[in-house]
Amino acid sequence: MRWLLGGILVVLAAVTVAVGVLIYLIPATAIERHILTAVSRETQSEITTSGMPEITLFPSMEMILRDVRIRPQAAPMTAVTASRVEAEVSWLSMLTLWTIDITKLRVIEPVVQLSEPVAADLERGTTTELRKSPYPMPGLAIREASIERGRISGLGENWRIKNVDAEVKSAGLDRPMDVDLTMFLNGHKVTSAVKLKDPAKLLRGVPVPLAAELSTEFSTVQLDGTWDSAEAILEAIVKVKTKDLDAAARWLGFGSVSEFVGKPAGLDGRLRLRPDAILIKDAVVQADAMKARIAGRVEKQAEGFVARDITIADFDPKHLGLPERTNLKALTVRVERIEPGAPVNAELLFSYNGQPVSGRATLPELER
């Protein structure tokens, strides 16, 4: 029995020495190229780096890449850059399972640029080429991942997202992924918990189902829907509560609504959001004591926001200051366009003392 145990130990020692010598002879750039090629294939992305990688081989492989640039094939108008990427790779999985098992992944100072044109210098430095390999490519597994001091650009002047920190305890694409996230949106801290229900869809360029809860010092947001990374569109059922409508409006870049300073407000409905527009499909909106059902579209323009095709229904007429015995019900207002500096033309439909009434009204120019 001793000779058998001794033989096994000798074989293991010989394999370890052989692997160590082989690794010592392989250039660091070759190791980087093989790992990046596997990652590129699994994530269906083009990855470029600049400069020589830093690789430590024992007791585990640790690799540091600088000036990393990623362009997902599913979202060609989106680019991700990072000043530094650190990865710890398990040797055991490489040798026994032919899998690049990244036990820890740190992405430092990443920048997500939406709607970025293809850069002329994208091919600089080391570039992964997805050509057919003469041998089976290793698989890829990521155990833990984190993002430090990230930033998102391309959402417009009114959406400044900085200091993004995220942590993923289990980053497998074959199961739901929970992300703990903090960031600063327009100067205010936002904490959130995000669940990607099917993260593998990110690689196929199709909308990814997700759920999220976000909170700030004066607002909370809950959403359940889908994220389309190729078009940068979020479509979801959204619930918003704020204790100060004026502060929330200024925070999101809509300007001041001074008549609602310190007043609570809420929204509950289905929205479709993209960087330049918000489509309100059907939502119940409450501002202080006023409540109504709203549908329409809000678009970003050079001098602020413009609302189009707005329908306001189920509004309680008692907030209009009418005489007490006025029997006005079922008030619906339809507006084609609302913008600062222009009059508002509205179509009115309501019931007055039991009789249906329709008409049009014009409001003075809104202040810019």
Number of alpha- plus pi-helical segments: 5
Shape: elongated
Cα end-to-end separation: 90 Å
What Rg do the Cα atoms give?
A: 28 Å
From the helix content, strand content and strand pairing, which structural class follows? alpha+beta
Mean pLDDT equals 76
Major pleated sheet:
20 strands, mixed
Q: Tell how many strands the DSSP assignment holds.
A: 20
User: Which percent band covers the strand fraction?
Assistant: over 45%
| Topology order in helix (H) and strand (E) letters | HHEEEEHEEEEEEHEEEHEEEEEEE
Q: Give the % helix.
A: 10-25%
Residue windows where pLDDT falls under 50 for at least 5 positions: 1-19, 21-27, 116-132
Helix and strand layout, with pairings?
Elements: H1 2-25, H2 28-43, E1 45-49, E2 54-56, E3 61-72, E4 79-89, H3 91-96, E5 99-113, E6 126-127, E7 139-153, E8 161-168, E9 177-185, E10 188-196, H4 201-204, E11 208-215, E12 219-228, E13 233-242, H5 245-251, E14 265-274, E15 277-287, E16 290-301, E17 304-315, E18 328-338, E19 344-352, E20 355-363
Parallel strand pairs: 5-7
Antiparallel strand pairs: 1-3, 1-6, 2-3, 3-4, 4-5, 7-8, 8-9, 9-10, 10-11, 11-12, 12-13, 13-14, 14-15, 15-16, 16-17, 17-18, 18-19, 19-20
